[in-house]
Write a structure and sequence with these properties.
8-stranded mixed beta sheet, Rossmann fold, 2 domains, alpha/beta, two-stranded antiparallel sheet, globular, Alpha-Beta Plaits
Length: about 425
Amino acid sequence: MYHDTLVVKNEICPPSCTLCVEACRARDTRVSPEVIRKVDLPEKGFHSALLCNQCSQPECGTICPTGAINRSSTGGVAVNEESCIGCGLCTLVCPYGGIYLNRVQKKAGKCDLCGGNPKCAEACPYGILLVKKAKPLVEQLGEDLLSPGLPFCAGCLMELLVRFTLRTLGKNIVLFGAPGCCVVGERCQVPYYGCLMTNIPSSMTGVKRYFDRMQKDVTCVAIVGDGSTADVGFQPLSAAAERGEKILYICYDNEAYMNTGIQRSSTTPLASWTTTTPVGAKGRGKQNAPKNVPLLMAFHEITYVATATLAYLEDYAQKIKKAQAATHNGMAYLHVLCPCPTGWRSPAESAIELCRAAVETNYFPLWEAEYGNIRFTHEEPYPKPIGEFTKLMGRFSHLSGEELQQVQEYIDQRYAKLKNLARLNDSSKEK
């Protein structure tokens, strides 16, 4: 179920550039001079590259009467030219236009990822074509420690978050939780300690110190919501950070008290609708800026702090590993954006798209801090306007043009502050 693919970032493709097409044409192939097309629609402001999406269940392979289209050993969906009879059925069922028919040779041709190292991506100087390799990610995953089934709401990313986190951390952990969306005590195959919303870090401290006394290297990890983290449980969290407790605390931030009725929390964004920040004649959503919890944790100068989303799994996996290792010297904190389709009033299938848009608009930048020294782990060279994020959900649908501009200005200011902190750390290293 894990395959390599190419990701195309449409919005920054220069209209005059054809380097990817030229690189594809220069590769060794018998069927088609190139299997990538440049698409320029200046009247729509759209410039991109069109190629195979490497579908997990490719329709082209299903409909092929000779079985000529299959997944190769390197992960790409490839055409066996010896078996292809040039019927063209594959070109008719592909919804993306990513497969072509050479009518002279009567053979189909498509991107096969060049055996794992796509030439088009190597030739792209703008970072528009990105190779996403599954193997480095899969190699980090251990046994699935969460029971089958879906205990969460439709479209919720919580299952992926918990399942992926546990597979990355491994069995040598004790998991802590509290009342909220993520209560998985009876569903996980590791010890689970159920806490109150106000005593999670305190309980983790006691258990971790017990294991240290017994000379057992066990990771104590909490997966807890933004309500416990930013509000009622922030004091013990801050105290544990100040003491340098050797624990890993992961906050899944769905930006409200979703489990009890979508009430606002300290991390609810500016201008967002919730049931306690209504939109109507007297209300225009939340009128306060959200508490920047990951930055507050970085200011504690603990061993490791990072932000993450499930749209960038490689980034998250690396940060989980770094955080787990960091607990040998002190406290580690991960802040993971976790959209709630119900509370955000978004389609059930849109959660990953929301995570990606949050990063691409600088709404939720990806960074890490070691002992308070901040650096970005992913930067958008051409950030999208915040409207590309807010338009994906109903909780911002009430915003006027002026209100949306105010949100944009706030996002820009917050990102600029973070950027300055990262530059300050870079400057101190140079000295």
